[in-house]
């Protein structure tokens, strides 16, 4: 009975989460003004993403390094 209750609670949580967490609509690129030629700002406000991608690439390089060293170890019994 406890297992069924756990499964039910987890299922309800996973089903209700997308309903409860709704994102806001993104702001208009021109601060709400009508778009005219020459004054369209970048969508997202020009937020920089370079530091996040650097962190991701560093983590991927470290993971590849660890993966390579784990799979190329020479066993002592050989």
- Principal-axis shape: flat
Radius of gyration from CA coordinates: 25 Å
Contiguous uncertain segments of 5+ residues: none
What percent of residues are in strands?
under 5%
Mean pLDDT: 78
Q: Tell me the number of helical segments per DSSP (H or I, 4 or more residues long).
A: 2
N-to-C span = 52 Å
Structural class per helix/strand content?
mainly alpha
Describe the structure.
It is built from 2 helices and no strands. The chain is an all-alpha fold and 78 residues long. The radius of gyration is 25 Å and the shape is flat.
List keywords for this structure.
flat; 2 helices; mainly alpha; 0% strand; single chain; 78 residues
What's the layout of helices and strands?
Elements: H1 2-20, H2 50-71
What can be said about this structure in brief?
By secondary structure, the chain is an all-alpha fold. It has helices spanning 2-20, 50-71.
